[in-house]
From TrEMBL:
It comes from Oceanobacillus sojae. This is FAD-binding FR-type domain-containing protein. The lineage of its organism: Bacteria, Bacillati, Bacillota, Bacilli, Bacillales. Gene3D superfamilies: Nucleotide-binding domain of ferredoxin-NADP reductase (FNR) module, Translation factors. GO terms for molecular function: oxidoreductase activity. SUPFAM superfamilies: Ferredoxin reductase-like, C-terminal NADP-linked domain, Riboflavin synthase domain-like. Residues 1-107 form the FAD-binding FR-type domain.
Length: 238
């Protein structure tokens, strides 16, 4: 496993509680849209065993051609040790990145794609949308639906309707409206449904989608196969 130590190039205040940390991109480092990474803070590997409280699994919110590794995260007033340290970090300080992988690349199967997310989960989808804008081959259209009760919606300059690109986007601030819209979207029985959020959010979305007849293979989760099987046993039918 190769560990890259890299500097914070920029810190962007997206909303009062959400920051994007732009990290310098190591020379031989690359990734796909929808990738996640292990982000670690100084001291995580100082002992005999890694200090897991100083390591977090984060989505990358940028594409390689942006030449910076973007990490977008919510940091509340009361937060973990990891985020407390991260909140106090400044441009020029170093963090470690390693173990890059994607579970949710953009599938190009001549179908409609639906991106379902909660809050900062939208960061996972930013690269998918940008990748689609650059090349729409074999994707019929994309629709994004995000729920955020704070109403401080993210990346509104990207997640705005673009009819000429066959891209639509919705933001809602309550579960009732959100799940009613999920049911409407699930009328497309051939669509691909990407879901990113908390485990509870994933379970709720899967339940609604399955009730509407959407099959497990049509539901994409940012989970490795073992974790995915816990949410979507492929042999369970409705």
């Amino acid at each position: 496993m190769k560990i890259y130590w890299t500097k914070i190039n920029e810190i962007i205040d997206e909303t009062p509680e959400v920051k994007t940390y732009m990290l310098e991109c190591p020379e031989d480092y690359t990734w796909e849209e929808g990738s996640h990474i292990h982000l670690a803070l100084e001291g995580f590997n100082a002992g005999d065993k890694p200090n897991r409280s100083l390591i977090r699994h984060m989505s990358i919110s940028t594409l390689p051609h942006e030449n910076l590794i973007g990490i977008t995260t919510r940091i509340k007033e009361q937060c973990s040790e990891f985020k407390t340290i991260l909140r106090e970090m400044e441009v020029g300080q170093e963090v470690a990145v390693f173990k890059t992988h994607t579970n949710v690349p953009l599938k190009r199967e001549d179908r409609n794609v639906y991106l379902l997310s909660a809050g900062v989960g939208l960061a996972t989808f930013r690269p998918l949308v940008l990748d689609y804008f650059e090349c729409a081959d074999n994707v019929n259209q994309i629709h994004s639906l995000n729920i955020d009760s704070s109403r401080d919606f993210l990346f509104t300059n990207i997640f705005e309707p673009a009819p000429d690109k066959k891209f639509t986007s919705q933001f809602v601030d309550n579960r009732k409206d959100y799940y009613e819209e999920v049911k409407n979207l699930a009328e497309d029985k051939a669509g691909l449904f990407y879901v990113v959020g908390s485990d509870e959010f994933l379970a709720e979305n899967i339940e609604v989608l399955r009730e509407q007849g959407i099959q497990p293979e049509q539901i994409m989760l940012d989970k490795h196969e073992g974790q995915r099987a816990e949410f979507l046993p492929s042999d369970v039918s409705i």
